Amino acid sequence: MANFKNYGGYSTSFIHSALPVSLPLLQAEQQADLAPVEGSPNNLAHYINYSLALSQSRGFPYFVAANIDGRLFKKVSRTDNWRKDSRISAVHQWGEELYKARKSDFDKGHMAKREDVQWGQTVLEARAAADTTFYFTNAVPQRAELNQQIWADLENYILHTESVPNNLRISVFTGPVLCPSDPVFVTKVLGKALQLPTLFWKVVVFTKDEEKLYRVGFLMGQEQLLRKAKIVKPKTVKIKVLATERFMEFEDAETYQVNIGTIEELTKLILPAAQDIYQDDRPTKLVLEEVDLNARLATPEAIAELGYRIPNLVI
């Protein structure tokens, strides 16, 4: 039995006591749609080093907020101990009944990455934090072909190459775009029609000088992958929001850097305030480049350690 009292959750003062990073703000209708969480007056589900807001109508999070401390990262073994959160009604969470359903050809996509929160003063603390990422509340169906490498490495890249050596702390906000026009899964689950998110977003907040906060945003899509695998039903109506030329890029399972305003427009969330670094209305597809072994000697130590760079990332 989990000791939820030890789940401190996301900290707004994590980066610096003088630079608080608030949680995303929900619209009134989103707030009313939050799944009730036992013991939480604001219906936020707190885990170790991260928190989330779960939509009861969709069974997926509106957002997941995580604190990452690279200095305290520990290597631990992976458990894969997926389970539902007992503080939340099972009817508001999708579990194995979704991921083992017919045509469920997708992964349990972590919103808060296991490695992101896998830190603490001791290995035991890091292992406990990593284990809490295996609640189904933190999972959203994602096709395995998604461009996970860049998506997964963004935080580490910013953490190890852009933050100053004495301040290796960042806050990351992630989630699916829960759009009313999301396509419907071809298999009913527990007798219910289920809409699958096609877009995922990530916002990284950090500081370079301990005087100002900066933020960068990213989007990734999987609509074409879902439709190609015939996991979702064919379109019957034209999607007004995503059919615009502006958002068509995000169907192709690549990772794009975008304006924070684009993410706010899609999610209807108000994201924590910070200085926007990327201010181009045109999304930029990110490219991951392996660092040549000989070239590593001439690169910054952190890039050499990671073995890659993202040359067109604006931070």
UniProtKB/TrEMBL annotation:
Gene3D superfamilies in the record, alphabetically? Extracellular Endonuclease, subunit A (3.40.570.10)
Highest taxon listed in the record's lineage: Bacteria
> Where do the DNA/RNA non-specific endonuclease/pyrophosphatase/phosphodiesterase domain residues begin and end?
46-274
Taxonomy of origin reads: Bacteria, Pseudomonadati, Bacteroidota, Cytophagia, Cytophagales
GO MF terms listed in the record are: endonuclease activity; hydrolase activity; metal ion binding; nucleic acid binding
- InterPro entries listed in its UniProt record: DNA/RNA_non-sp_Endonuclease_sf, Endo_G_ENPP1-like_dom, ENPP1-3/EXOG-like_nuc-like, His-Me_finger_sf, Non-specific_endonuclease
Keywords linked to the UniProt accession: Metal-binding
Origin species: Adhaeribacter arboris
PANTHER family in alphabetical order: ENDONUCLEASE G, MITOCHONDRIAL, ENDONUCLEASE RELATED
Q: Which residues bind Mg(2+)?
A: 147
Active site, UniProt feature: 110 (proton acceptor)
Task: Give the protein's recorded name.
Answer: DNA/RNA non-specific endonuclease
Residue ranges of every copy of the ENPP1-3/EXOG-like endonuclease/phosphodiesterase domain listed in the record: 47-278
